[in-house]
Design goal:
Strand order of the largest sheet of chain B: 2-1-5-3-4
Number of helices of chain A: 19
Radius of gyration of chain B: 15 Å
Number of strands of chain B: 5
Helix content of chain A: 25-40%
Shape of chain A: globular
Oligomer: heterodimer
Radius of gyration of chain A: 27 Å
Largest sheet of chain B: 5 strands, mixed
Distance between the termini of chain A: 58 Å
Chain lengths: ~750, ~160
């Protein structure tokens, strides 16, 4: 391999270190206007009237628009049709968009929003998801407040528990997590001669395309969505950009001028979708020898006011809820519930970090009750090649969970670990393991495709047009590497074009750690066909039999001891008028999961992970200092080891934030700390002294060069590993995230 | 009101309200959009520039306070096409992901290296502690700063 497996330099790094990379707020137009959003002041209101008279008189204000101004459909096209672009009769959370102001400057637009008068009547809200499930709760979604419910029944868990020697049952809860990407949401919309173009920060341009078409009533060939350099996503730019783009498009359509909307940090906090708070009741039953034979999970997600992606977040959580173990009897009930709070949606891990915290904490509690070592208990029950998951999916050979357990623990000195006490400081060790279904799986099978238009120019440069996006994770680099390897070209010659929905194939969303596999395979499908053309020409030039194999090395095509350079071969193809263009395609095949039984193959493959941690707890202040993190992942094949390490390190720190820092506080449905001084994310002072990314490569035969996905897994196991280490250090078992000092002190004084 | 100052070695005059932030002036009046707004409240460091050798959050500095000062922004870092060692090291170490924090991060690091040729890991962590990054976990950023310190010492 010339390129795959090498830590080549990122395609976008030069523009980013020089300040030349253009994010959406760096674009302007001479006649551009600014849009700002009027939001619901209360969590649940009936809107009686909206008075805009005073506002329209303000100098610089061009207009104020409400739901009645929408020419198309007033529903954001996501999974369930419940979320309006602009509230009409009711608003269901504090921060929901009700009206839009457009003005000559951002300042005027923002000031004017405060003068739009909303006359409303407060309705009785419901904030607690468990309350929301009760018959007595106000009905805010359908007749039961349930967005979605899933059931899995493998074997007979109720019966199996009767025959267990040891049973542990606990309840765990988790708080919100805010994506805190550094670039807030933003869009710029402008009319064109055949419709409208919208530019902005986003993960899923084809979702945004649906949204803009729907709000304006345009057809898709009259709308163009362009993704600009995106300053972080983590799931937070999966659903919300559809709303921001819809708003910007509406304002451009109404004013006939370009309109930019950039969220400030506070409105980004109060309005954009979050990681769901979770409530998990979980029970494991085992034999004396440590074999887990039964598992029961009741998993409740607090969906907030609108469904956004709750149904599929819930599905992913359900599939993984029993943990990365082979358990013959599993019973899972999972419910996503509506409440009058900010909606929850996609966030790195997508419904898994909540349940992973629960099952990986509980397995340590089980180990203690069994008198077994936590690593030994995990190894005994771990999913292995040929194991059957909670849904009866038989795992392939691409299953390196056991290797991740051994490597992660080894690298922090697990075997010889000792609890240490120095004054008020207590040191301890913990671990957690997980698995992650790569790509959309059965629940998203209608979107589970990807295309790649690959074209070689006469100078040897390769144009790659794909529908998945780079939001910072490095897709542009990884996919260029895959294309270069497939063609046999130098890496420098391959690059991905700007993602523009009018020019790239709809490849479904850029989510679910799916881009390397999906777009990578679509690219390889294209390069395979192009190579047939090139190889034929190479054969003729080198005077070899057409049946002989052409190999590539360092920019040359080889046949036996003869060779021709890549550039000469391409030039020769051009002279012979060969078509060096192909539209590659790839679909996920083979998922058989059945919603009614909750059984079948849920995903095409899984990534397996283990995190081991050493922490130090100050028992007087409750403060936790993470000393060591080792994070091992079986990702099939690292296309670019340096980028893979970057994903693992970044995910580790987000996981540390989730575990011990990040604490969004809501009172009566309103967020009290919508900023980085109140909602603390990790800084450079919070990284462990030792942080070790470990890559395990159990080749996935259907992946590009054996690769699986990596984006999300690095976050998932971090919080439970830390929580287990805190317990090991102090004897304090934290069952609610985050483990902020106040909580640790409260739990410790209760002992 | 007319306000004079120096940006990247070039004298500039802007005519605006003295309360307008330095960040807005850089981006809107001087078209230096490499400096980013992440929070607008001095909490995230994305807008960091160097003002008279100090790394500052340009989003909370009124332009009136900048009169007569000398500024460095990300656009002024490479000299005649040659990247600054920090820029080279950030690329080589894989310290860049989404890139939104990077201009501010590099300027905070430069302010440190300008006064401390051989910083310890802790010196670097402290110097970057006002610059939030949500992608990288900081590890490769810190490695890049260490590497550029070595490159800069070798240049002298």
């Amino acid at each position: 391999m010339d390129t795959v497996g090498k830590s080549v330099k990122r395609k976008d790094a030069l523009d980013k270190v020089t300040g030349r990379a253009k994010f959406i707020d760096d674009y302007t137009r001479v006649d551009m206007l600014f849009g700002a959003t009027v939001r619901s002041p209360e969590p649940y209101i009936k809107i009686l009237s909206i008075d805009t008279k005073n506002v329209e008189k303000i100098k610089g204000v061009i207009g104020v628009y409400t739901a009645k101004d929408i020419p198309g459909k007033n529903i954001v096209p996501l999974v369930l049709p419940d979320y309006p672009f602009l509230a009409e009769k009711v608003a269901k959370f504090a921060g929901q968009a009700i009206a839009l102001v457009v003005a000559e400057t951002e300042e005027i637009a923002r000031t004017a929003t405060k003068l739009v008068k909303i006359n409303f009547k407060k309705l009785a809200p419901v904030f607690d998801p468990l309350e929301s499930l009760k018959n007595s709760a106000p009905k805010i979604y359908g007749d039961d407040n349930i967005f979605k419910r899933f059931i899995i029944k493998k074997g007979d868990a109720a019966d199996a528990f009767k025959n267990c020697d040891v049973v542990v049952k606990k309840t765990y809860t988790t708080n919100y997590q805010v994506h805190s990407y550094l670039e807030t949401q933003g869009m710029l919309a402008e009319l064109t001669d055949n419709g409208i173009s919208v530019y902005g920060t986003m993960q899923c341009p084809f979702y945004v395309l649906n949204a803009v078409c729907d709000i304006l009533g345009f057809t898709k060939n009259n709308v163009k969505i362009v993704q600009t350099t995106t300053g972080g996503g983590f799931g937070g730019k999966e659903d919300v950009p559809s709303i921001v783009a819809g708003h910007a498009a509406l304002l451009a359509y109404k004013t006939r001028r370009p309109v930019k909307i950039i969220y400030n940090r506070e409105e980004d906090f109060v309005s954009m979708s979050k990681r769901h708070p979770g409530h998990i009741e979980i029970k494991y039953g085992a034999k004396k020898n440590g074999k887990i034979t039964a598992c029961n999970v009741r998993y409740i997600l607090d969906g907030g006011a609108f469904a956004t992606l709750s149904t599929i977040v819930l599905w992913r959580g359900t599939i993984h809820a029993a943990g990365p173990y082979e358990i013959p009897n599993v019973s899972i009930e999972a419910i996503a519930v509506a409440t009058n709070k900010v909606p929850c949606g996609a966030f790195r891990g997508f419904g898994q970090p909540q349940v992973a915290f629960a099952n990986e904490s509980l397995i340590d509690e089980l180990a203690e009750k069994l008198g077994m070592e936590p690593l030994e208990l995990r190894l005994k029950n771990a999913l292995k090649p040929g194991s059957s998951t909670s849904t009866y999916q038989k795992l392939s050979s691409s299953c390196g969970l056991v290797e991740t357990m051994k490597k992660a623990t080894n690298s922090i000195g697990w075997k010889n670990r000792k609890r240490v006490t120095v004054g008020v400081l207590r040191r301890g060790f913990g671990m957690a393991s997980g698995f992650y279904g790569v790509c959309l799986g059965a629940a998203g099978k209608f979107l589970a495709k990807a295309g790649a238009h690959v074209q070689i120019q006469q100078d040897g440069s390769i144009i790659i047009a794909i529908g998945n996006t780079d939001m910072g994770q490095g897709a542009r680099t990884i996919l260029s590497q895959i294309a270069a390897e497939g063609i046999g070209a130098p890496y420098e010659m391959a690059d991905i074009v700007e993602v523009d929905t009018s020019r790239v194939p709809d490849s479904g969303p850029t989510v679910a750690s799916r881009t390397t596999v999906m777009s990578g395979n679509a690219i390889l499908n294209a390069t395979k066909h192009i190579r047939q053309k090139i190889d034929k020409v190479v054969c003729e030039i080198l005077g070899e039999k057409s049946s002989a194999k052409v190999t590539t090395k360092c920019g040359y095509y080889h046949m036996g001891d003869k060779k021709i350079s890549y550039f000469d071969a391409i030039n020769e193809c051009y002279k012979r008028r060969e078509n060096l263009t192909y539209d590659g395609w790839w679909k996920e095949e083979g998922t058989t999961f059945d919603n009614d039984t909750g059984l079948g193959d849920a995903y095409i493959v899984y990534t397996f992970s283990t995190v081991a941690a050493e922490v130090e707890v100050n028992i007087e202040t409750g403060q936790v200092n993470i000393l060591k993190i080792a994070s091992a992942h079986d990702i099939g094949r690292a296309i670019n080891p340096q980028l893979a390490e970057g994903q693992i390190q970044g995910g580790a720190l987000q996981g540390i934030g989730y575990g011990i820092f990040e604490n969004l506080i809501l009172k009566d449905g309103k967020i009290l700390n919508p900023n980085f001084s109140g909602y603390l994310i990790p800084t450079s002072m919070d990284i462990p002294e030792f942080i070790k990314p470990i890559i395990v490569e159990k080749k996935f035969t259907d992946g590009p060069f054996g690769a699986k996905g990596l984006g999300e897994p690095p976050l998932i196991c971090v919080a439970p590993a830390i929580i287990n280490a805190i317990y090991n250090a102090t004897g304090v078992r934290i069952r609610a995230l985050p483990a902020i000092p106040e909580r640790i002190l409260a739990e410790s004084s209760a002992l | 009101m007319k306000i004079k100052f120096t940006v990247n070695g070039k004298k500039v005059v802007v005519d605006c309200e003295p309360s307008k932030t330095l960040l807005k002036v850089l981006r809107e009046d001087l078209f230096l959009t490499g400096t980013k707004e992440g929070c607008g409240k001095g909490e995230c460091g994305a807008c960091t520039v160097i003002m008279d050798a100090m790394a500052v959050n340009s989003c909370i500095i009124p332009i009136g306070q900048v009169a007569g000062k000398s500024l460095n922004t990300i656009e002024g870092l490479s000299k005649s096409g040659e990247l600054h060692p920090l820029q080279k090291a950030f690329i080589e170490e894989g310290a860049v992901q989404c890139g939104f924090c990077i201009p501010g991060m590099i300027l905070s690091a430069k302010a440190l290296l300008d006064i401390n040729k051989n910083p310890s890991t802790n010196d670097i962590k402290v110097a970057l502690s006002g610059n939030l990054c949500r992608c990288t976990g900081y590890t490769k950023i810190i490695e890049a700063v260490k590497k550029s310190a070595i490159m800069m010492r070798a240049q002298r």
